[in-house]
Specification:
This protein has a single domain, classed as Na+/H+ antiporter like fold. 81% of the residues lie in helices and 0% in strands. The chain has 13 helices and no strands.
Length: 296
């Protein structure tokens, strides 16, 4: 176990240092976490997404497997998460997104790049885009309390969604960008992961700490429930090798940072979600190596 945790810390060290850097900088200077998140998600991350999807060397079969498995994982987590919030009596607007959405982008992308190189990173990028699509559609509907023009307007204005759609369009049609443009997007996208980690550190600095009686159970749901649902899905789809490992580990990642940021944008309390993000991210030092070990 000690060796496993040591390996996890070594694997996650660049991520932890970037998060710590953001936290310490926010301690010394006045930094707006929303602004940092916005520039990362609206500029740097779309460049990474488009380049990774459009330039992906995955076969159509593997691409379909990642897309299908990520979508089914979301559906199952949403259904079971809804049962959980009903049982605990917590507000689904602030709790449900933190249960359902994992940090497959800001944490998962740099993690998989460190672990398995560009091939693993491309897999998690595609997995994450399915999650991102649902987060910026159904997730916003949950947070705002239902269907609204504002929710759909936010979805249509999201650069992440457009980058994903254009990336798949280029991939499916065989279109290619000039090499200089593709290289520029790759250069810009490379900054997304460290900036995302720094943004997480800044957001942790500005989070209030408080205890909720259902928090421990929610953390078990995110980690154990996420892994078991991931295991069910990879078994159903017969996934093997790197795709299986990436899918399983991604399913049990900490709560997505956006589950803490989005409620603020729509006037909802984000205290519960922020605590889920912070505690689950810290616990990931132990949980991630266990996930890799169990994934084989």
């Amino acid at each position: 176990m000690q060796t496993m945790i040591g390996s996890s810390i070594s694997l996650m060290l660049p991520i932890l240092l970037a998060v710590l850097g953001g936290y310490l900088y926010a301690w010394r200077f006045d930094v707006d976490a929303k602004d940092l998140v916005n520039i990362t998600s609206d500029f740097f991350l779309p460049a990474l997404i488009f380049h990774s999807v459009s330039e992906s060397t995955l076969s159509s079969q593997d691409l379909g497997a990642v897309l299908s498995s990520s979508a089914l994982i979301f559906i199952l987590l949403l259904a079971l998460g809804w049962v959980w919030v009903r049982l605990t009596g917590e507000n689904p607007r602030s709790v449900l997104p933190a249960l359902v959405f994992m940090n497959s982008g800001f944490l998962g992308i740099p993690l998989m790049k460190i672990w398995g190189g560009n091939e693993a990173m491309n897999l998690i990028v595609i997995f994450d885009q399915v999650q991102g699509f649902f987060m910026f559609s159904i997730g916003i509907l949950i947070i705002t309390g239902g269907f609204s023009k504002k929710s759909f307007s936010t979805l249509l204005r999201s650069p992440i969604i457009w980058a994903m759609a254009l990336g798949f369009l280029f991939k499916a049609s065989g279109l290619t960008l000039p090499r200089s443009v593709a290289s520029s997007l790759f250069f810009i996208g490379e900054a997304a992961s460290p900036l995302a980690c720094a943004a997480l550190g800044v957001s942790i600095k500005h989070t209030r700490f408080s205890f909720h009686k259902s928090l421990f159970g929610s953390l078990i749901f995110r980690f154990v429930g996420g892994y078991l649902i991931g295991l069910l899905v990879v078994t159903l789809f017969g996934l093997t090798g790197m795709i299986r490992t990436v899918t399983l580990v991604a399913s049990a990642l900490p709560s997505a940072m956006f589950t803490s940021i989005l409620p603020l944008r729509y006037g909802q309390d984000n205290e519960y979600a922020s605590m889920m993000v912070i505690i689950s991210t810290l616990a990931a030092v132990v949980v991630i190596p266990l996930s890799f070990a169990l994934a084989g």
